[in-house]
Specification:
Low-confidence stretches: none
CATH topology of the largest domain: Alpha-Beta Plaits
Strand order of the largest sheet: 3-5-1-6
CATH class of the largest domain: Alpha Beta
Strand content: 25-35%
Distance between the termini: 28 Å
Structural class: alpha+beta
Length: 301
């Protein structure tokens, strides 16, 4: 296998359709929420989807089981997709990195959904009905404020640009990440693991949405090992409440930042640039792994 990384062109990205739904919720009463709101909001979303849209059919995505409904397609991809079931991923991500814990009436909580693939208009419209149900139900916890939907904006999202000849990328986690590499949970950020996480997710999104992406996946996965990382990160213990198991679930996580460099960076820069869209690690539908990227040099294509 060639190791002439400098001669390798930047990898192409698949022509995957992405819809960004920006939303704002206005507090109708004072209250408090946990510092990391992804799990709380995602849990309420699960309840709202089951209430509002459980009987709705699944969108017409390739490879879905004929028995899959809207709820299964959104929340249980490993059951809903027949092929590559163990690798199936969610076709939506939740982004909500607001650090506040206490809310006064009139203050707003902002975030967005990223919907990957060809979502039909009726399916996107269902999200608004689901959010209305979230506001009607309220977040879990007696001290949680009541909210109302104050803004709802749908836009097409393009891939993020990458520099032509980057020397270094700085990845900053905005929410904790659940990162695995080769079957092992990680408690520090590692550049090869971050790149492979993005590569796996993007390949699976292309497969599940029927988007053609002509790449040599094994070769690119191997090239990720040529990335170098200078990390300032720490492992943390995460917990979430499982309504299905009726108990708290402990999960390893990592927070911090990572400086990425190495001979393969120019080739893999277009992939790494998508970290703010694709998220790092597992369960982006909970909001885990949200990140920001800065580059040196900063000029983009």
């Amino acid at each position: 296998m060639s190791t002439d990384y400098a001669a390798a062109p930047p990898i192409p990205l698949p022509p995957l359709a992405i819809t960004a739904v920006h939303w704002e919720l206005e507090a109708l009463s004072p209250g408090c929420l946990p510092p990391f709101k992804g799990s709380a909001l995602r849990g309420t979303l699960g309840w709202a989807i089951e209430r509002v849209a459980r009987a709705a059919p699944a969108p017409p995505w390739p490879g879905l089981s004929p028995a899959a409904d809207f709820l299964a397609a959104l929340f249980s991809p490993q059951l809903a997709w027949r092929a590559s079931a163990s690798s199936a991923v969610h076709l939506w991500h939740l982004q909500c990195a607001d650090p506040r814990t206490h809310w006064q009436r009139g203050e707003r909580l902002a975030g967005r959904f990223l919907l990957f693939g060809p979502w039909p208009e009726w399916a996107i419209a269902l999200w608004r009905d689901i959010f209305d149900a979230v506001c009607e139900q309220g977040f879990a916890g007696a001290q949680a404020p009541r909210f109302a939907v104050a803004a709802w904006i749908e836009r097409r999202q393009s891939w993020l640009p990458a520099p032509a000849a980057p020397q270094q990328a700085c990845l900053q986690l905005l929410t904790p990440a659940r990162l695995q590499d080769r079957g092992q949970d990680l408690t520090v950020l590692a550049a090869p693991a971050v790149a492979r996480s993005l590569l796996r997710r993007l390949r699976q999104l292309a497969l599940q949405t029927g988007t053609r992406w002509d790449i040599d996946y094994p070769a690119l996965s191997h090239r990720c090992d040529a990335l170098l990382g200078d990390e300032l990160s720490a492992g943390i213990g995460l917990q979430r409440w499982s309504n299905r198991q009726r108990q708290r679930i402990a999960m390893p996580g990592v927070v911090g930042q990572l400086l990425i460099s190495g001979p393969a960076l120019p080739e893999l820069a277009p992939l790494i640039a998508q970290a703010p869209l694709l998220h790092i690690g597992r369960q982006p539908n909970f909001g885990y792994g949200q990140s920001a990227i800065t580059w040196n040099p900063i000029e983009a294509l």
